[in-house]
Structures are given as structure tokens and as C-alpha cells.
Amino acid sequence: MENLSVKYYREGRKKKLIILGILFATIILSLYALNKGAAGILFWQTFQSLFGKGQDISNIVIWNIRLPRVIGGIVVGGGLAMAGTIMQTCLGNPLASPSILGISSAAAFGANIAIVFFNAGLVGNEAISINNPYIVTIFAFGFSTLAMFCILSIARLKSFSRESIILAGVAFNSLFTAGSTLIQYFAEDFQIAAMVFWTFGDLGRVSWKEVGILTTFCLLVFIFFMGKRWDFNALDSGEDSAISLGVDVDKIRFISMTLASLLTAVTVSFMGAIGFVGLIAPQMMRRIIGVDHRYLIPASAIMGSFILLFSDTLARTIISPIVLPVGAITSFFGAPLFLSLLIKGESRR
Amino acid sequence: MILAIKNLKFSYPSNEVLHNIEFSTKRGEVVIILGPNGTGKTTLLKCINRILEPTGGTILVDSINIKDLKARDLAKKIGYVEQQRRGSRCTVFDAVLLGRKPHIKWDVSEKDVKIAKEALETLNISHYAFKHLDELSGGELQKVIIARTLAQESELLLMDEPTNHLDLRNQINVLSTIARIAKKRNISVIITMHDINLAFRYGDKFIFMKDKEIYKAGGKEIVDSETIEDVYSVPVNIIRYEKQKVVIPI
């Protein structure tokens, strides 16, 4: 029989190759996305601009519009997928995703309050816009973190049991959705339009400043999650097993859920709701690469980046120059993809 | 003395599960806990492993109160095979390697991989090392969890009905392996089980539990038909076959 250790290391190398493959595909897609858009910049001009040697107009388009958007997509996709991976592990629920805890609905509720009570939305020149994005982002972030702390505080009463977190999340999701409905019911037409516009996830909202904040936060959370990858592997084998392997289950669950929720709150506040990436990317990678978090966390993050970047590129180019909301694209393709994964998974069993 | 339990109590809000439990175990000893369902055997193991917090009493491992140990240090001292387990998309090798978790600082070393490989070989499960856990039968999965606990290299092994799901041949193989390892590594093993005859064959010390308490504890000499009848409310005969006591329910 082949030496077990040799085969173990070979399996590890295979997984690393898969991760490198997805990373390579994401880099190629990024270059394609940088080149595509309404400005009609040629491929070689894109490259020249990337190195600061292009024409003024192409330099502006590449550096101020497309590059922040592409990097924003990579970071947000990776962050949402990472948050989904960790939530699925901490809650022992394959359906867990950043939206399950009501964080997205809380952010939408906060944004709605900013739009209605602080006049942050307006309609001008036949276009709907958010005229004060900072106040909308602050309110969205404030309410989503408030929801997160309420959910985790209630769950704390039940020793952070998986069920208590999910049930509290479902309750808060329902509460904030109802709140948004009531606000919209009494709002003016243009305010409702601005609210709906905000809830469409859109990568075009970010500038370098937001990209910087998101990247720093995502990287810090990634380093923390990778440092705890063995704890997550132990959690996957059951709570009692994890404790007997030296994991402080309550503590790791609280810290990880807080960070995953904050990650979601930050991305949703800047970009609006982007569904399915946090659910589908970890689900795909669990099937392809397995549940070892040494590989699963980076693999899911890169797959999340690829999915969001692909969806955004499609959203920008499919009926160019009109840009579709990326949140609609991710959900439109995510739902059938998720169903096919579900059916394949069931038939394998 | 590897383990010393004094005046241990455990209660849920509505009912008491363990009352004044006291016993100790020595290195190299296989201790078998016997008793009807619902007498607190699993709860006792979970208290020793700090999965449940006792409502009273002390548990000393190597003369250290387990409350004073960090989770990782406790895991280096105590390994646990739980009664209910589930499969996942994790390979058998990775599941056994996970037993090294208390010893891993950043990533697994060659030593960790070697120890996991040896644990797989000890349990004779190398041939399915790269299968996923959710593709295994209950018995195969049971052996994987036992291998993981062996890879943990702890000084005290707690095993909650480890022979569940195993056929007779595998029950004998697993128990004889565990008894051999206890002697070889000079560690203590505490096993809960229901098969009294298998317990006789591999145990050095026996603890009979009844109504939340220890009814009787000691060596093979304490196991008589009267004790078994009192604990299980079933009349039995004990005969000798090739120097072994054999319990036959009447």
C-alpha cells in the first residue's frame, strides 16, 4: 500500500493547486473586467494606464473608476464568502450566510431611516441618487452592528447555542424587514425610489478610500480566521469533540460570529445588499476541496471574489452602457446554481 | 494517581444527575463504568472532561484541579470518545490528524502526520484513510474517532460506549487494543459500556452506578450476581469458563 504520509502531502498539494487555479482565473477575469466598459478603452491602453503611461482620459477611467470597482469586487466577494464560511461552521448549518442573521435587513432599515428622516435620497435629472452617501453608510452600519450585538446578546443568554443565534437572527430579520416596510409605506415616491436603489448592491459606490477600509478590515479578519482554522476544523466535528480537543467553543463562536457579522455590516453599508455570494462560494468549495479550513477559508474567499467580479462584469457589459445592479445578478445566477449543488449533493448520497 | 474525584455533584435545573461521586484511577488501569441507562455515566465523563460544569466537588488530574487548566492543556491530559458522532466531508486521515490539535502551534509537523498515521495503523483503518467520514458505516466511523483520540496522546482516555456500532470481532479488537495501549503508554482509560462480559475481559477496575451514585467500586472480586441483580434488577448466574467470569441472565 502506498505510504499514507506521502499520499496525505500529495492530497494537500492538490488542494493548493485548486486554490492557485481559482486565483489565476480571478486575475485573468480582473484584467478582462478592467478592459471592459462604456469608455471603449483598448486592451493595450488599459495596460499602459495601469502603469501610468496611458492617455489622460484612459488613466482616469482605469484608476478612478474601474480599478477601485474591480478591487472592491474582489475584496467584498472574498469578505462575504469568508463570512459565510465561518457562519456555516460556527452555526453548524450549511444554509447559514451573512444575510441569515438579519444584518442586511438591519442595514437596509438604517439606510431607509437616513433617506427619509435625513433627506439623503433625491431624484434629479431623471436619475435616482443618494445625495449624502456618508450618512446612509453610517446609518446602515450603525443599525447592522446594533442588530448583531442584539442577536449575540440574546444568544449569550443561551450559551451561544447554534439554535439561539439562528432563531434570534430570524426574529431580527423579520423585525427590520417590517420596519423598512412601514417606513416605505409612509415615504414619498422619490424616497421609495432612493431606498430601492440603495438596496440594489452596487460596486460602483466605492472609491479608493472605501476600498482601503474594506481591504484592511478583510485582511485582518482573514488573518484571524486562518489563525483559528484548527479550531474551526474541531468545531466541524461537533461541540463536545471540539471542547475535548481544547477549543473554548463559546469564546471562538462569539468572536468569530462578531467578526463575520462586522465584515458583512461593513460591506453591506458601503455596497448595499449582495445576496448569495456568502452562501454559494463556501458551498461550492466545501464540495470541491472539503471541509478542512486550512484550505476552505482561502478557497472560499477567492471563489467569492471570482463570483462577484464575474457577476459585476456581466452586470456592466450585458446591456452596456446600462449597468445592472450586481446584487440582482448574483441572486439570479446564485439561486439555480445553489439548487443544482443541492440536487447533486443529494444524489451523491 | 492520574485522576481523583471527590464529592462530585451535577444537577440540571430540574433534577440531580450525579450525587457525591468519589473514585480515583491509576496509570495503566482500565476502569469500566457499568449501570443502567440514565444513571449518569455519560454525564460523569462529560464533567471529567469539562464539557459540563459540575455543581459541586473537585476533579483532580495529575493532582491539578481541572478548573485551573487552560482548555488546550486539559486536552493534552484528557482525550474523549463521545457517544454520538456525525460524519462530514472530512477525510479519515484529516479527522485523525485533528487529534493533534492540542499540540499544533501554527501548522501540523511531520511528527503530527507520523502519529496520525500510526493511530490509523493501530486501529487497522489505513485502507480507508482517504475516504470521507460521511461515506463510512457507524462502526468504521467509531474506529476513526478512537484513532483520533489515540493520536491526541493524552494521559487519560474517556470512552463513552466505544463499542457501540461495532460487530463482535471489532468490539474485541478495539477493546484489546485499548487495554494494550493503556499498559504500553502507562495511561488510564475510563470506559462506559453495557456488555458485562466484555467488561470482565478487559477491565481492571469496575464502577457500578445506580440512582445517581456509585453503588460499588473495586476489582473483579466485587462483581457478583447480587450486585448485578441490585443494579440492573435482572437475576443472573455467574459461571466460570477458562478462568473468566461469565454472566448469564436467567
Structural commentary:
The complex is a heterodimer of chains A (349) and B (250). In chain A, α1 packs antiparallel against α3 (56-91), α4 packs parallel to α11 and α5 (133-157) runs antiparallel to α6 (162-186). Chain A starts with a helix and ends with a helix. Chain A contains 14 helices and two strands. Helices cover 77% and strands 2% of the residues of chain A. The longest helix of chain A is centred in the N-terminal third of the chain and has 36 residues, at 56-91. In chain A, strands 1-2 form a two-stranded antiparallel sheet. Chain A has 349 residues and is mainly α. Chain B contains eight helices and twelve strands. In chain B, the strands form three sheets. Chain B has a six-stranded mixed sheet with strand order 6-7-8-3-9-10, with helices on both faces. Chain B has a four-stranded antiparallel sheet with strand order 2-1-4-5, covered by helices on one side. In chain B, β7 (156-160), α6 and β8 (188-192) form a beta-alpha-beta unit. Chain B is globular and about 50 Å long.
Short characterization:
The complex is a heterodimer of chains A (349) and B (250). By secondary structure, chain A is mainly α.
Shape of chain A: globular
Q: Roughly how much helix do the residues of chain B carry, as a percent range?
A: 25-40%
**Beta-strand residue fraction of chain A:** under 5%
Helical element count of chain B?
8
Uncertain segments of chain B are: none
Average pLDDT of chain B, to the nearest integer? Answer: 89
Helix amount of chain A: over 70%
Cα radius of gyration of chain A in angstroms: 21 Å
Q: How does the SSE layout of this entry go?
A:
The complex is a heterodimer of chains A (349) and B (250).
Chain A: H1 4-35, H2 43-50, H3 56-91, H4 103-117, E1 121-124, E2 127-130, H5 133-157, H6 162-186, H7 189-199, H8 208-227, H9 229-236, H10 239-244, H11 249-271, H12 277-289, H13 293-317, H14 326-348
Antiparallel strand pairs in A: 1-2
Helix pairs in contact in A: 1-3, 1-13, 2-3, 3-8, 3-11, 3-12, 3-13, 4-5, 4-6, 4-7, 4-11, 5-6, 5-11, 8-11, 12-13, 12-14, 13-14
Chain B: E1 3-11, E2 16-25, E3 30-34, H1 41-48, E4 56-61, E5 64-65, H2 71-77, E6 78-81, H3 92-97, H4 110-122, H5 138-151, E7 156-160, H6 168-185, E8 188-192, H7 196-202, E9 205-210, E10 213-218, H8 225-232, E11 236-241, E12 244-249
